[in-house]
Amino acid sequence: MNLHLHINKNNPNVVWPYQLTLITPFQLWATDNDIQIFQFQKAFLKKLTQIKKASEAISTLNFFEHNSNFIAGSFDSSIIIWPMNLTSTPKYITKLQEKYHFVRCLAVLSSEDLVISGSHDHSIKFWSYSTSQTVSPYCWFQSQTITEHTSTVWGLSINEDENKLISCGEDKLILIIERTNKHQWIVKQKVYVENGGFRLSFINNDSFASQPHKDQRGSSNLDLYQFDVSTDLYVRTGNVPIKGKGQYCRAYFPQLYIPSKQMILSKNGYYINLIRFTQSNQTLADWECRLVQTINFDQHWIFGTVSRDGEYIITWDDESKAIQTRQLIAI
């Protein structure tokens, strides 16, 4: 696999963009208290507008692909849905309040009628959109809360069928949460692990990968889990050796699985690791999993994302202080 690097020189002078998210043809870049919107085309970025958002840093960004909105979680405990109309003085559509705790991660269902947040108060909250209320065109309300974690929730991931949710945190616990026919979510399984985790992601409906860390130091492996039909439980089936062991590691760079490339992008220590899965059937035991490429940034302040087609990786790091765009040439 080869990556072609393009560095965008005309970047604003910012420190630590906690979150980057990309959907062609736009990129969102969260920098401390504002959100910058760029036009993205053939690895080049052109700034379109900037939104002054809040008094605290933005911690997570997600797109609503169908209705051209995006959602931002923040250290000021707010979750705000914004329009993508690119006006010079944009106004948010709705604001959801997490009460007094930092928002650490967000997940959005493809139907865009449910947002799930993980927070510093150890909770996972479900925010539902209701068409029955007539107060506003967009009526969101908190429909459920899960409080099984005992520490900060750092990572969330939804499977392909969107009937399972997994979460990880500092408490050395992975929750397997399932959606019922009544549209409620229940904790189906608790997976106790040796170390805490910043990031995890589903690979398909029945398997996922988790990136552990120990005392905020990178791990030597990416752990793999598979659903066992005989026990109706997820079990750890193996791991993939990766780079970044023992190096200081931070959150705010979600692990991502790109289905079209059968590839996971996972930050660990100073590295971004690209792991390829060659699928022969649905079970991980029959897959070939291997580390195909690493990107070394020589320090731990790395933030980034990948396009949904897996063609572009976009990063910002504290060493270069530049947006770097890498294009996948061949795999």
From TrEMBL:
Q: Does the keyword DNA-binding apply?
A: no
InterPro entries to which the protein is assigned, alphabetical? WD40/YVTN_repeat-like_dom_sf, WD40_repeat_dom_sf, WD40_rpt
Query: Pfam families under this entry?
Result: WD40
Question: Is Ribosomal protein among this UniProt entry's keywords?
Answer: no
Matches recorded under SMART domains: WD40
Entry GO CC? cytosolic [4Fe-4S] assembly targeting complex
Provide this UniProt record's keywords sorted from A to Z. Answer: WD repeat
Q: Which domain of life is it from?
A: Eukaryota
Q: Where are the WD repeats?
A: 51-82, 96-137
**Protein's name according to its UniProt entry:** Uncharacterized protein
What is one Gene Ontology biological process annotated in the Swiss-Prot or TrEMBL record?
iron-sulfur cluster assembly
This protein's species is Paramecium tetraurelia
